[in-house]
């Protein structure tokens, strides 16, 4: 069995988060969905568990990060093209996300947004040939 990743994110309003990510084209596994959480399917082996804050708090003794003041992580996902990067970010912004500046290095392109709960999502396209040879 391939290793799977489940990124757990706290959310204030599960229904609003599900509506937001549905607009981006994501689907959810009903087997792992109730009033406390849902399992957002990102790919065959990557999932985001969206947990309402009181439920999320039950998994840690630490404070939940206030995303308006601190960044707990960046969720970075690959995209098939620069256009695919722009498409998902544009959908997110249209659905209420905060847009961040795009960066184009020629061989690598990325854009990001903050979701409704302030989590930073970054989508990246990289040229399969990799970066140009180092000059120096």
From TrEMBL:
Gene3D superfamilies given in the database record: 2,3-Dihydroxybiphenyl 1,2-Dioxygenase, domain 1 (3.10.180.10)
Protein's name according to its UniProt entry: VOC family protein
Superkingdom in the source lineage: Bacteria
PANTHER family tied to this protein: BLR2408 PROTEIN, BLR2520 PROTEIN
Domain VOC, residue spans: 3-126
SUPFAM superfamilies to which the protein is assigned, alphabetical: Glyoxalase/Bleomycin resistance protein/Dihydroxybiphenyl dioxygenase
InterPro entries, per the entry: Glyas_Bleomycin-R_OHBP_Dase (IPR029068), Glyoxy/Ble-like_N (IPR053863), VOC_core (IPR037523)
């Amino acid at each position: 069995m391939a290793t799977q990743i489940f990124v757990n994110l706290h959310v204030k309003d599960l229904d609003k988060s599900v509506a937001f990510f549905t607009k981006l084209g994501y689907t959810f596994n009903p087997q792992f969905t109730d009033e406390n959480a849902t399992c957002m399917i990102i790919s065959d082996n990557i999932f985001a568990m969206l947990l309402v804050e009181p439920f999320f708090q039950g998994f840690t003794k630490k404070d939940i990060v206030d995303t308006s003041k601190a960044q707990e992580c960046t969720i970075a996902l690959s995209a098939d093209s620069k256009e695919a990067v722009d498409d998902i970010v544009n959908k997110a912004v249209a659905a209420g996300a905060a847009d961040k500046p795009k960066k184009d290095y020629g061989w690598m392109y990325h854009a990001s947004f903050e979701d409704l709960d302030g989590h930073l999502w970054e989508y990246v396209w990289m040229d399969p040939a990799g970066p140009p040879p180092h000059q120096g």
